[in-house]
Amino acid sequence: MSEDAFLDPLVGAAIMVVFSLLWIGLGVHWGRTNSEGTKGYLFAGRNVGLALVTATLMATWVTGNTVLAAPEQAYKIGVWGVIGYCFAGFGLLAFAPLALRIRRLMPNGFTSGDFMRLRYGRGAWVPFMAISVFYFLAFLITLGMGAGLLVEALTGLDYHVGLLTVMIVTTIYTLLGGMRGVIGMDFIQAMIILGLLIVVAFMALTTYSPAEIQAGVIENKPGHLDLLLPAGLLYAWNTGLFSMGEVFHSNIWWMRAYSSRPSVNLKGFIVSGVAWMTVPLVAGVVTLVAIAFPGDFDIPQVNMVLPVVASTLLGPLGAALIFIVVFAALASTGSGLLTATATLLAQDFYRPFVNPEADDETMKQTVRRLIAVLCVLTIALAWVYVTSMYGLLLFAGALVGSTVWPVLCGLYWDKTNPVAASAGMVLGSASGLVFYFAVSSFGAALTGFVVSALVTVLGSRAKPQDFDWKILAYAGHERTSAMKEG
Amino acid sequence: MEDSFALGVTMFMIGMVATLITAVTIVIAHRRSERWFAEHEGTDS
Question: 20 to 30 A from A160, CA-CA: which of A283, A418, A456, A471?
Fold first, then answer.
């Protein structure tokens, strides 16, 4: 157990037990209302309203990284760390119009893989699924490792306690509650995250005025307010483009587009994108206090800046608040990840290759089994902490950045050539990885994004194709006919 | 490499232009799409 923990291990364990019981109890409650097969279990009836859509999008996008890595970047590279991290909200904002179009073109769609297969065929579906599955596994592993590390650092409890608690509790309430449970829980978790961060920020900014903070940062780390800092410039847009890659290809967001009422799709993504930006902004600004007044805060490691500031200002209560925020952030992201990955595997691998005759109930049970398998797999892969969490995600950034323009063109431009889209993803990923290893991890997503965009657009211009949009309406069609309509 | 000002500025400019082009493309495409759906409302799309 760590001697530098911010919370007493018993208090940390008590918080985990209370919130675990709350999550599972609510999962049981919401699970009782699921009676519409996959339509109810995976898409919450495809009729979710604005408040719940906004909250689930925001809560899912707030990860352990948002709460701890954003302050870390602010502490390391200053104001660009804060602004650059906020740019990750662009992913949700840019996806808003696409979500509306997805809902209109594919009213019964299941996954992002559905779209790739129907729009471009197997040639593009293969690299897309390879990127998607790799990204989901990397995300799940970083989530599991993050849970273990954060619980250990904040409470002193063993790494494996956090890993097991977060993964098992999240899996249980996801299995019981389905998408209705996940979205309901996300709403509560979003309120907890925003509410508690506001308390911490209020305390920080009433203890130290903004003018004092600015003067302190100028005195101690003047470079941190320099908008021409090279690392900051390199970091700035990469985060925004990386976030677009993460959102555009990912089945997490496609499933939320399919679950929402068409009338709230656009608004929900825009409001959640803006609301999400306040989280790294508030967390980052609070961190500047530690730079301005280094004598008041003892920072043992840079990713623990926010807990240090909170516990110094508010005592053990501050540490407890941050622990609850982190626990809620991990659970909300974990539930969305498990559901999206399991549905993608069931719909795009199990159904076409293992059981083409699977009916609605079989698909629902398959998704549930896959959620449990993914939980076990994540625990096994994250059991030994071997790599930097953020480094692994930046590696995935090189790949997901290359999916943005193939998805964008595929949704809006009937002339897009499937070969060009496929080549865009392959060449974009390859060039992003070359940049990652040869130059810097910070520009990998940007490189993949630009190369893929050029290949997709120029290739389609050179050899345009005609696509009939009606084909996309077949997404999920065969499943819908076998489904009990609500 | 991450301390190179030239690399930082170059990637910043490329990133800014790429983001702008993507944003403008999405807005134009979204407007066209909405116009199309409005014109074909009630018909088989």
Answer: A283
Length of chain B counted residue by residue: 45
3 state SS of A260: strand
Tens of pLDDT, residue by residue over A21-65, are: 998 998 888 877 766 677 788 888 888 899 999 988 988 888 877
| Residues on chain A touching B5 (C-beta within 8 angstroms) | 228, 230, 233
Q: 3-class SS at A48?
A: strand
Q: Please give the angle made by the CA atoms of A245, A248 and A251, to the nearest 5 degrees.
A: 115
Q: Cα separation of A18 and A257, whole Å?
A: 32
Compare CB distances from B19 to A228, A230, A237 and report the shortest one's residue: A237
Q: Do A233 and B12 touch (CB under 8 A)?
A: yes
Do the chains contact at A237 and B16, CB–CB below 8 Å? yes
Tokens representing residue A304 in the block: 């623990």
How many CB atoms lie under 10 A from the CB of residue A449?
Answer: 33
Half-sphere exposure of B13 (CA within 13 A, CB side): 5
The tens digit of pLDDT for each residue in A441-466 reads 778 889 999 999 999 999 999 999 99
**ipTM for the complex?**
0.89
Delimit the domains of chain A by residue range: 9-388
